[in-house]
């Protein structure tokens, strides 16, 4: 949503740096939207408690000189990754994640969509349908893991 921040809860007893990468229009699916690659980084405290990491659009920095200085909007982001590779750090198996979410902001009509634009209401319906589908799949995967499949 426009004006939103992206938040995620992270737990890592060792603390350290938390990095995410973002790709805008990575597949060229949005006509007229300049692509780019970006990163955002935050420091984690050494604690067993959950910490909320929040990134604003202005926190995104270009990964390459070919990328615009920052994306104009969250719309058009085609890839998002949580990574340890940004500074060639080893992945820690103790780090846990939960509750990736938008904080604040609004969906203004029309919403950018690969085949054109959608109303904000239709976008929210499709978005929620996909979240629900993902949660159902996660539940099936967890059940299969318990059954040894």
Short description:
This protein is of the alpha+beta class and 149 residues long. It has one helix and nine strands; from the N terminus they run E-E-E-E-E-E-E-E-E-H. It folds into two domains: 1-105; 107-149.
Explain this structure.
The chain is α+β, with helices and mostly antiparallel strands and 149 residues long. The chain has 2 domains: 1-105; 107-149. Helix content is 18%, strand content 40%. It contains 1 helix and 9 strands. The protein has one helix at 120-146; strands at residues 5-12, 16-24, 36-44, 47-56, 61-62, 77-83, 96-103, 111-113, 116-118. The protein has a 4-stranded antiparallel β-sheet with strand order 5-3-2-6, with no helix packed on it. A 3-stranded antiparallel β-sheet has the order 4-1-7, with no helix packed on it. A hairpin with a 2-residue loop joins strand 8 (111-113) and strand 9 (116-118). The longest helix has 27 residues, at 120-146. The protein is globular, with a radius of gyration of 17 Å.
Gross morphology: globular
> Can you write the helix and strand succession as a string?
EEEEEEEEEH
State the end-to-end distance: 38 Å
By helix and strand content, what is the structural category?
alpha+beta
Domain count: the total is 2
Strand content: 35-45%
What's the alpha carbon Rg, rounded to whole Å?
Answer: 17 Å
Enumerate the spans where pLDDT stays under 50 for 5 or more consecutive residues.
none
Number of helices: 1
* Percent of residues in helices: 10-25%
Average residue pLDDT: 87
What is the topology, as strand order, of the major beta sheet?
Answer: 5-3-2-6
How many strands in all? 9
């Amino acid at each position: 949503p426009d004006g939103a921040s992206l938040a995620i809860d992270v737990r890592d007893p060792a603390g350290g740096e938390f990095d995410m990468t973002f790709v805008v229009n990575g597949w060229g699916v949005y006509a007229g939207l300049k692509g780019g690659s970006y990163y955002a980084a935050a420091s984690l405290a050494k604690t067993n408690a959950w910490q909320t990491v929040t990134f604003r659009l202005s926190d995104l920095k270009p990964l390459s000189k070919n990328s615009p200085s920052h994306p104009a909007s969250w719309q058009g982001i085609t890839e998002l990754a949580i990574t340890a590779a940004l500074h060639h750090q080893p992945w820690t198996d103790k780090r846990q994640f939960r509750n990736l979410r938008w904080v604040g902001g609004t969906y203004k009509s029309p919403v950018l969509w690969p085949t054109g634009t959608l109303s904000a209401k239709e976008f929210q319906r499709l978005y929620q349908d996909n979240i629900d589908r993902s949660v159902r799949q996660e539940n099936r995967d967890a059940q299969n893991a318990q059954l040894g499949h």
